[in-house]
Design a protein that fits this description.
CATH superfamily of the largest domain: Mitochondrial carrier domain
InterPro entries: Kinase-like_dom_sf, MCP_dom_sf, MCP_transmembrane, SLC25A33/36-like
Subcellular location: Mitochondrion inner membrane
Strand order of the largest sheet: 1-2-6-7-5-4-3
CATH architecture of the largest domain: Alpha/alpha barrel
GO molecular function, one term: pyrimidine nucleotide transmembrane transporter activity
Structural class: alpha+beta
Distance between the termini: 118 Å
Pfam family, one: Mito_carr
CATH class of the largest domain: Mainly Alpha
Number of strands: 14
Keywords: Membrane, Mitochondrion, Mitochondrion inner membrane, Repeat, Transmembrane, Transmembrane helix, Transport
Radius of gyration: 36 Å
Bound molecules: zinc ion
Strand content: 5-15%
Length: 712
């Protein structure tokens, strides 16, 4: 390689390799790498989605600290992957936007472009140098092999620090958010992007430098050199296959390009199959210290440990998904590389102009490929700033969360990286609920000309960032219940208080309003609807720990359970099978045929809100007595409800009022049994109560006076 480094500086020689021209490989490689990454980006997005949805189904935990990989157990099978991937791509494109397929592209390009530029530069020039120096200017397999190996070593050494920083940032982000939420370690759509932001690359570089020194940046370098094997196989095989296809079809035709793309794909596939395990080992070696100790110290030690702990199979985990990404990537990358190389440039002799040339080539190539729209969109995609406009909020005496925001009443917020339902701006209209730590606002989405013209009503819940993340994680873990049992969650926003503290904001579907009546006053049919929602939540593993009236939303006789701040995982599979709606008005306290009810929690809640009112009867608020022949039915009791404890100057104890209530309703029952109709009695309620009071006071020798008219 010493020769390779010296040769270009020595100036033009008898070979056709000129210093200026060598940059073609650099530029072509960079552009090729970039295009490859753009094409592969949707597959990366799908990979993330697959992992998180898989997580939701299986409720397994992501074990990052344990083994250092970020891989969630994959469903194996190439066919399954293809079908699933196709569906997800289609859904993301239709339901979100084409842009959503290119999330996270920016950071990828930062790593990919330098790596590819260096690799193609080193290989493309290296093979000429080696051929000229050692093989009389002729290229053969041996020359390709040596050049590819040298290029691999150069690339590995130069780019290892970039990968170390990137891997650390990812590990840190995933490690952090796995500890955030009790229900959902992978609240993939809400937590990740935000937390990843909390440590930036520069902080990470300083941290590695401080804690581990320069050597920290070269962790896993030996494994990177192992990766040289893959690059070498790939390059050598590519050159070989390219020559074969070019020879059969003649130069320059369309078939040559097809052959080239096929060669690139095939070479990558073969090379991946042979060397895939090194990816696994490389990730392990870059893992940060666990409990202050390094678990994976060297190449051989790591290989042994992984095989011993997880079996040989783990070295090929996720291979099919990997191939689905790297093969199209390689095909596009080599195609672009070759295309750029064959582009007839008039290279300016002035080296200083190289920079602008590089840029103009990148632009013209991307324009020609009609991917320019995607590239330009990445900038708007990354600026996830939202605005909450509070200026229409009516004046309120009580202070609320938003008032602490740094730029209230026009607050900018960061979105968490996911596409929210509505772009850019929300108008906050009212305060629905307000406590010292949480405020719930109603808001509408500001309509945009390119929108559908509908006004979307939303609910914003402002609380601490930590709480917002936990609650969002709980919503995420129960996607299946969203819009049916619990409101839909559209996303999470993050703002800053004036004092610099963080504030989080859940953006939720607006659904009716909180239940104002106590449960026990609801008609049985409504109790049944609410309890059936509760059972549905249980079947989905959601155990709501605050099942109370303010957390029940009602809209047109439909119900939702809200506030997932205080929930837990249902400890066992819920065995509740009784459908409340099918048992309205049943008069017997009937147990299902099976042993028990299947879930004691639901049984208790149902009894608590008085769904089965057949074995007891409510005479006063919070006063129930066993049903008997001496008392009217609950329906009749409700109709005959009147004031009890009407004596002026008498202090009635709780027991006194209960005694009076029993006497009153006993008398009502007697009247009903002696031929009086309920319709007759309802207007006489106060009068009957009056007579009962007079009798009671006489028995107790207590004076009685009342404001009711009958006394006079
Ligand atoms: Zn249950």
């Amino acid at each position: 390689m010493a020769d390779a480094a010296v040769q270009p500086i020595a100036g033009p020689s008898k070979s056709n390799w000129l210093p200026a021209k060598s940059w073609q490989h650099f530029v072509a490689g960079g552009v090729g790498g970039m295009c490859g990454a753009i094409v592969t980006s949707p597959f990366d997005v799908v990979k993330t989605r697959l992992q998180s949805s898989l997580f939701r189904e299986k409720h397994t935990t992501l074990s990052i600290a344990g083994n250092g990989t970020l891989t969630v157990p994959h469903r194996t099978g190439l066919l399954y992957n293809f079908v699933e991937t196709g569906h997800i791509l289609r859904d993301i494109y239709r339901e979100e936007s084409p842009r959503a397929l290119f999330k996270g592209l920016g950071p990828t390009l930062v790593g990919v472009i330098p790596a590819r530029s260096i690799n193609f530069f080193a290989y493309g020039n290296g093979k000429h140098v080696i051929a000229n120096k050692f093989n009389h200017g002729e290229e053969n397999t041996w020359v390709h092999l040596t050049a590819a190996a040298c290029a691999g070593v150069v690339t590995g050494t130069a780019t290892n620090p970039i990968w170390v920083v990137k891997t650390r940032l990812q590990l840190e982000a995933d490690g952090k958010h796995s500890s955030r939420s009790s229900l959902s370690p992978d609240s993939s759509t809400t937590a990740r992007a935000r937390i990843a932001k909390s440590t930036n690359s520069w902080d990470m570089i300083q941290k590695i430098m401080r804690e581990e020194g320069v050597r920290g940046f070269y962790k896993g370098l030996s494994a990177s050199y192992l990766g040289v094997t893959e690059g070498t196989i790939q390059w050598t095989l590519y050159e070989r296959l390219k020559k074969l296809t070019a020879n059969t079809e003649g130069k320059g035709g369309a078939m040559e390009w097809v052959g080239m793309i096929g060669s690139a794909g095939t070479a990558k596939c073969v090379a991946s199959l042979i060397t895939y395990p090194h990816e696994v080992i490389r990730t392990r070696l870059r893992q940060p210290l666990v409990d202050g100790k390094m678990k994976y110290t060297g190449l051989v030690q790591t290989l042994r440990l992984v095989i011993a702990e997880e079996g040989t199979k783990s070295l090929y985990g996720g291979l099919s998904a990997h191939l689905m990404r790297v093969i199209p990537n390689a095909a596009v990358m080599f195609f672009i590389y070759e295309a750029v190389l064959r582009w007839r440039f008039d290279w300016p002799s002035d080296a200083a102009a190289n920079g602008s040339w590089t840029l103009s080539i990148i632009l013209s190539v991307t324009l020609n490929l009609k991917v320019s729209c995607i590239v330009s969109n990445t900038s708007t995609m990354d600026s996830n700033t939202f605005f909450l406009n509070f200026h229409r909020l009516p004046d309120r005496s009580r202070s609320h969360q938003a008032e602490d925001l740094a730029n209230y009443p026009h607050c900018s917020f960061d979105a968490d990286g996911q596409e929210l339902l509505i772009p850019h701006s929300l108008d906050v209209l009212d305060v629905l609920y307000c406590s010292s730590r949480t405020t719930v606002y109603s808001a509408v989405a500001v309509c945009y000309p390119d929108g559908h013209g509908t006004v979307n009503e939303l609910v914003l819940k402002l609380t601490s960032e930590q709480k917002a993340l936990v609650e969002a994680g709980n919503y995420d873990a129960h996607v299946a219940l969203q819009g049916k049992v619990i409101p839909r969650l559209y996303g999470v926003l993050f703002g800053e208080r004036e004092e610099g503290e963080d504030l989080g904001c859940l953006v939720l579907e607006r659904f009716g309003s909180c239940l104002k009546q106590p449960f026990h006053e609801l008609p049985s049919i409504d109790k049944a609807k609410i309890l059936d929602k509760l059972a549905e939540a249980h079947h989905n593993g959601l155990h709501h720990l605050d099942f109370e009236e303010p957390n029940i939303l009602v809209q047109d006789g439909e119900y939702r359970i809200t506030d997932l701040g205080h929930v837990t995982v249902h400890e066992w599979t819920c065995g509740w099978s009784y459908k409340f709606a099918d048992h309205i008005g049943e008069d017997e306290y009937r147990r299902p045929e099976q042993d028990g009810w299947g879930c004691e929690i639901i049984r208790r809640e149902a009894a608590g809100i008085g769904f089965w009112n057949d074995y007891r009867i409510q005479l006063l608020p919070r006063f129930y007595v066993p049903k008997s022949d001496d008392l009217p039915s609950q329906e009749e009791t409700n109709r005959m409800n009147t004031d009890i404890g009407i004596g002026v100057g008498t202090k009635y104890l709780r027991e006194d009022r209960q005694d009076l209530a029993i006497r009153y309703y006993n008398h009502v029952k007697t009247l009903l049994q002696t031929g009086h109709s309920l319709e007759e009695l309802v207007p006489l309620r106060s009068h009957i109560a009056y007579k009962i009071h007079v009798q009671w006071h006489a028995e107790k020798n207590l004076p009685f006076s009342t404001l009711l008219p009958w006394e006079r």
